[in-house]
Amino acid sequence: MAGSADFDLYRPSEEHDMLRDAVRSLAEAKIAPYAAAVDEEARFPREALDALTANDLHAVHVPESYGGAGADALATVIVIEEVARVCASSSLIPAVNKLGSLPVILSGSEELKKKYLGPLAKGDAMFSYCLSEPDAGSDAAGMKTKAVRDGDFYVLNGVKRWITNAGESEFYTVMAVTDPEKRSKGISAFVVEKSDEGVSFGAPEKKLGIKGSPTREVYLDNVRIPADRMIGAEGTGFATAMKTLDHTRITIAAQALGIAQGALDYAKGYVKERKQFGKPVADFQGIQFMLADMAMKIEAARQLTYAAAAKSERVAAGGGEGDLTFQGAAAKCFASDVAMEVTTDAVQLLGGYGYTRDYPVERMMRDAKITQIYEGTNQVQRIVMARNLP
């Protein structure tokens, strides 16, 4: 047996630790200073995009064969976690680039991969994911957007709602019905470009949190695209969409984890400085117990998320780990519930100051809420877990 110092079974590699340090330094220097303004002005975090792109962190998941960094799923999670620790809106850049492009990576033709992953890896384009519709949220298979074959083309018509980074992204993975008789087996996936004729966007939604990441409707009005932009075979789009979410729900867990860690770090510093009754608030046992619970839950969420990320990587490499669906749902559900709880407690620990915009914890609390909702509400995650009990 190797010495205990070499027992690496349950810890990230040295490379992963170095990546975390590098991303944390970058996030604190180049992203954190703009986080409050991005939220206040509800504007896209251009500084974060520039910093992430300059350091090749905007889409780390793209394989090296297409010009990407070829980061594994755990490295991708660490990048998203560390960016979310200072600015949740900015963490949606690497997260949604993976969400939007993963269908192409999982099911796309070699030509499609070359055409769309290269610009993404270079930072020339972002990728969004169009699944939800006004009447098809949790029931995604009930979508109405249609794609009709016309010679060597498909013509797309419909509305997609809640599309993250819509208008900013150049590329969109769009799910559309090609055979209405077959419900989920009649849905196909396509790559649509922002510049395609007939593509337009609604006004940005006015949201509770993640205000720096635009959420808009995407309108498809007789959008005519070449048939070779279909991702995989006709009728496989819904299966690709669900397989994608098995992997990307883990990135939402990472985002939730980062938000929670940021809130705990800030609250911890605050209670050491703040004095009441002649001593630091941190000296009171009631406060110490709150901090202990927050840290314990974050650590549990981190272990679950990292284990799920490792499983995601093994599955992506061709391993047959059938419980990835359970693990991804569990990580997302647990970490987002923890983020909501921890950020709410952080606001409480700051007292009246926590409720003001002069301190970052109220923003973190607002940002945390969406992690319980998107990429499948936590109620849906529980249905998914129950159907996939290991």
TrEMBL record:
The keyword Oxidoreductase applies. Residues 235-389 form the Acyl-CoA dehydrogenase/oxidase C-terminal domain. InterPro entries: Acyl-CoA_DH_CS (IPR006089), Acyl-CoA_Oxase/DH_mid-dom (IPR006091), Acyl-CoA_Oxase/DH_mid-dom_sf (IPR046373), AcylCo_DH-like_C (IPR036250), AcylCo_DH/oxidase_C (IPR009075), AcylCoA_DH/ox_N (IPR013786), AcylCoA_DH/ox_N_sf (IPR037069), AcylCoA_DH/oxidase_NM_dom_sf (IPR009100). GO terms for molecular function: acyl-CoA dehydrogenase activity; flavin adenine dinucleotide binding. It comes from the Bacteria. Residues 13-124 form the Acyl-CoA dehydrogenase/oxidase N-terminal domain. Coiled coil: none annotated. It catalyses: a 2,3-saturated acyl-CoA + A = a 2,3-dehydroacyl-CoA + AH2. Its cofactor is FAD. Residues 129-223 form the Acyl-CoA oxidase/dehydrogenase middle domain. Keywords: FAD, Flavoprotein, Oxidoreductase. The keyword Iron-sulfur does not apply. Pfam families: Acyl-CoA_dh_1, Acyl-CoA_dh_M, Acyl-CoA_dh_N. PANTHER family: ACYL-COA DEHYDROGENASE (PTHR43884), ISOVALERYL-COA DEHYDROGENASE, MITOCHONDRIAL-RELATED (PTHR43884:SF12). Belongs to the acyl-CoA dehydrogenase family. This is Probable acyl-CoA dehydrogenase fadE25.
